[in-house]
Amino acid sequence: MAPSLTSLTDDALIALDNLADRASGLVNPTIRLGVTGLSRAGKTVLISSIVHNLLNGGRLPLVEALRSGRVSKVRLEEQPDDAVPRFQYEDHIDALVRERIWPDSTRAVSELRLTIDYQSASGWNRLFSPGRLSLDIVDYPGEWLLDLPLLSQDYRQFSQATVELAGTGIRRELARDWLSFAATTDMDGPADEMTARRLFEVFSAYLKACKSDERSLSTLPPGRFLMPGDLEGSPALTFAPLPGLPDTPAPKGSLRAMMERRYEAYKSVVVKPFFRHHFARLDRQIVLVDALQAINRGPEALQDLERALADVLGCFRPGHNSFFSSLVGRRIDKVLIAATKADHLHHESHDRLERLTGRLVDRAIKRIGLSGAGFEVMAIASVRATREARVKEDGHMLPVIVGTPIAGETINGERFDGIKTTAIFPGDLPEDPDQMFRTLDSDSPDLPDINFVRFRPPALETGPGDIKLAVPHIRLDRALQFLIGDRLA
Ligand code: GDP
Hints:
The chain is an alpha/beta fold. Helices cover 37% and strands 15% of the residues. Helix 2 (43-55) packs across helix 4, helix 12 (291-297) packs antiparallel against helix 13 (299-314) and helix 13 (299-314) crosses helix 14 (350-368). The site of guanosine-5'-diphosphate (GDP) has 21 residues, from helix 2.
């Protein structure tokens, strides 16, 4: 039997938290929606757009309660968790709508509460339900989820897995400094702070190089090494995995013993509190995936994304021997995987993006047993930065997208100033993603050529009283209906 990832006391505490949440939920029905995804996947933009569209009567026809006119009021309320930073919606939407720049990305956990007043569709429910739903949106980095599997690994297993992965593909080159420095250290020699720090520095430089824009690799625990926040420089964040660890107890006072202790501290100071205070309390989850970026970076980035998503989805595995022990029970009952930034493609490719993303998570879903009513894959754009058109070229009508490239973007040698708009042919995704995935390991991987231009957020028309009209999107309403529609029934 796999070791339980949390101890009995942790389980009891989580069960207590859940009871408390449920008790308060009886008085004031609440749904806690987790929004995650690896950095730059589009979490901040998604939350800003959801909130703005709900508050301003945006076009969300697929949200049944809105379409049928049963929602009377949506408002922002004080977010309920005093120790969690509030999601700075006002700043983000101001950047998007007024300045037409993309807001600052997620760096840590934050939260926001929206309260929706509605009339239940059934007379029976109207009698018994207060017709009010609080939606607590919890934004957190996907990198933190990738830390959860560490709870079931000891330092030696973690080191082994990390060193093994570092020996594959492009990582081998990027990991060289870290591994050659590690090879010169005497792990059973006396613990020394400067060596520990140096090991941490070369190891986190390797993680950063993997994550850089040109590489865009995804699987990189410990997640907090890339976004340390206020723990920067603390012992819990000053360690590194070591190659070739023996299966014997570390000598007292040795560097190895110090690394082991700090790794365990990382789990108890960083990973467990995140699990307990945030993750274990979620009811629904949306996982954002930037599949287009990975396709653009090539086969290794795509395979790495597949691996990272398998680890992320593993966190939602129901049943025993997972983070959800029998005591905690399964709380998350709906997971949506959303391929973001679909506005980079012509609508003819949106379904293809959906299929491709489905294929990306397919193996993980089957292994975990997640498929069914509680799980869906969609292609969406939280903010539609482009519009579609057709242009004639060589006698053929070609589908194009039109937008304003951000200042500094270069297309075919032309450098854009952030004001001029342009039309580009975005490229097509393959009809059959299986065929594409089969070529990834071959000498000639067959990846589509996607013309990935970064556009500015769209210019919005102004309504009466200088109110900016709601933000355009793609299929955001479908996503919302899946995530909360049943709770507004
Ligand atoms: P986070 O790190 O997950 O919070 O990512 P952000 O929400 O900050 O998004 C990262 C970047 O992706 C943004 O700065 C935008 O350039 C881009 N982006 C995110 N969502 C969209 C979208 O719906 N459409 C387009 N065109 N770009 C998007």
